[in-house]
Amino acid sequence: MSAERILLSAPGWDSELWIGELEKHAPGRDIVLETDGATDPSIRFAVVWKQPEGLLSSLPNLKAIFSLGAGVDHIFKDTTLPDVPIVRIVSDDLTARMSEYVVWQVLDHHRNGPRYRRQQQNHSWGETRQQASADDVTVGIMGLGELGRDSAAKLNVLGFKVTGWSRRQQDVDGVTCFAGPEGFGDFLASADIFVVLLPLTDETRGILGLETFRRMTRRGPLGAPVLINAGRGGLQVEADIVAALDEGLLSAASLDVFEAEPLGKDSPLWEHPKVTVTPHAAASSNAARLAGPIVEQMKAYDRGEPLANLVDKSAGY
C-alpha cells in the first residue's frame, strides 16, 4: 500500500475508467473505491459524486474533497461532512459542453425544431408564421457563473440579446444583468427563452414553479416563454412545469435535469408534446479531460499552494 491514497466514490459511474485516468496523473498513489476502515489514515483526498452518507466523516487525514461535476449539492446531502475544503470542477471542456447544449436548445426552439419534428411525424408540410431574427429574441440566463458567462458569450455571437440574473450583481460583457430578489421581477420580464444554470441551494430550490412562470413575459415573438433547465433538478417543480405548459404560461421546455433521476417511467414529461427530455447529458464529466486538473490541484495543495474554485460552504456552491 502506498503512503497516501485517493478515495474515489462515484456510484453508478465507470470506476475503472476514472481510476485509470487518475493513476496516469498520480503515479505512486493508490486510487481506492473503499476505505480500509472507518478511520483510514492513508486517504488524503476524496474525489466524489453522490458519495454515501458518512463515508468521509471519519477519515482523520483527509485534506480536501473534489466534486466530479459542476454541481456540489450532492456533496452537501451528507450531513456528516468533515471540515475540509470542497473544490468545484471548472474546466474548459465542461464549460464548452454546457455551452454547446445551451446553444443547441436555444436554436432548436428559436428555429421551431419541436414543431417541425411534429410535422414530420404527421407527414405535414407548412410554415404558417414568420421566423423571428435572433436579434428579436432575448435569452435570459439564470446563473452567471463560469457556465452562464460562456453560454452568454456564444449566444451573443449568434446575435441574440442576452440578460442575466444572479444572487449578486455581476458585470458581464454583452449581458444586461439583474441581481437578487429586487431584480428578479425585471429579469423575468426581460426575456423570451430562459436558460437555467443556477446552483441548488436553500434559496433556489423549487424556484422554477408557477409563481415564477406567471411573472415571465408573454409579449415576445415566441408568444409564451421557453424554459431550458440544465442546472439542477431540485430547482424545478415538475408538476408546475406541466401545469404551466398546459395553461400557456410556457410554450415549451427542454429539461436535462430532474427532481429524481433517472426520470420515472410514469412521468408525464416523457410524453408531453411541448417537452424535450435529455438524460442529464448537457455537460458530462470526461475522465480523460478532468482527471489531470484534479490531480494537479492535489499536488499544488501538497506544495502549500491554495486550492482554486473553492466552494463557499455558507452559500452552498
UniProtKB/TrEMBL annotation:
The keyword Nucleotide-binding does not apply. It comes from the Bacteria. Pfam families: 2-Hacid_dh_C. Residues 104-282 form the D-isomer specific 2-hydroxyacid dehydrogenase NAD-binding domain. It comes from Pseudohoeflea suaedae. Keywords: NAD, Oxidoreductase, Pyruvate. SUPFAM superfamilies: Formate/glycerate dehydrogenase catalytic domain-like, NAD(P)-binding Rossmann-fold domains. GO terms for molecular function: NAD binding; oxidoreductase activity. This is Glyoxylate/hydroxypyruvate reductase A. The keyword Oxidoreductase applies.
